[in-house]
Amino acid sequence: MNSALPSAMWLPFGARILRARSDRGLSRAQLAATVGVTDDKLRDVEDAHCRPARSLVERVDNVLGTEHQLVEAWAITLQAEAFPNEFGDQRELGVHATDLWEHQPMAVPVFLRTREYSRAVLGPSHPDLTPDEVELMVEEEMANRAAMTGPDGPVLRVVLNESALRRPQGGAAVLNAQRDLLADLIEVGIVTMGVIPEQTPHHPGLGGAFRMMEFTDRPTMVYAFAAEAGDLTGESEQVGRCAMVREAIEGAAVELTPRSELLTARWPEG
Predict the structure, then answer these.
(1) Could you tell me the mean pLDDT of each successive run of 10 residues in the chain, 270 residues long?
(2) How far is C-alpha 247 from the chain's CA centre?
(3) At CA 145, angle to CA 143 and CA 259, rounded to 5?
(4) Is-contact 31 21, C-beta < 8 A?
(5) What is the pTM assigned to this prediction?
């Protein structure tokens, strides 16, 4: 194993092996003995402290009966690390961050949405999908919210445009319930939030939505959102530029509290 840790992209892969092993009721020592490696080696794989060889992943896949899903995830992660333009598991990657900062100009972030708000955003965004397909996406967002806002989730910081909290996405009841959820999450300390007022004359976040993720003992990564998928990078120069934009966005933001007018006002009046 190299002394340098693999990129944070390997964290979801290691967690996937751990979940599959737990689902089969096997201890790490039992699985390690079955696939012919030491317990320490398998620990390094599950903790993403090494990049496992394909042959080892194939043996683990066979023993756990995951029908080549682990091998496919391994190949995707290996390619994504070499060419980090896009990473399909970026939501799962966020769960493994210690600190996550996100700027969203148009809507409330996925991991802070109510079910109804999620449905109201996803339906119009995917007119080609059936209601059942949209509902599956809603369930995925709810699972992501549970993981991100749970006790093992990252420290969350979000900055929105004011319009995101005034746009009645889904109607009055949906918007008001979404505001209530955000107020509750701020109240209990799960997330801190800022908002950039609409009258801001020099808005620093016009480049679009992006997320910065910090990890223990691994470089920071940035995910830039796009209409279709997005771009993920850990390249130090790009991360540095995004950090400068983040600082400017924070400088223009006004802190939200559970009693801020933007959260307590009822639409359509406010």
Answers:
(1) 75 95 96 96 96 96 95 91 73 93 96 98 94 96 96 96 95 97 98 96 93 94 84 91 97 97 88
(2) 21
(3) 150
(4) yes
(5) 0.88
How many angstroms separate the CA atoms of 188 and 169, rounded? 25
The residues with which 176 forms a beta bridge, in sequence order, are: none
* Residue in 212, 213, 214, 218 with CA at minimum distance from that of residue 47: 218
Residue 247 has which token pair? 């600082």
Q: H/E/C letters for each residue in 99-139?
A: EEEEEECCCCCHHHCCHHHHHHHHHHHCCCCCHHHHHHHHH
DSSP codes of every residue in 16-58 = HHHHHHHHTT--HHHHHHHHT--HHHHHHHHTTSS---HHHHH
Main-chain phi, psi angles of 113, to 5 degrees:
-85, 145
CA distance 160 to 102: 8
Report d(CA 51, CA 132) in Å as an integer: 37
pLDDT at position 236, please? 92
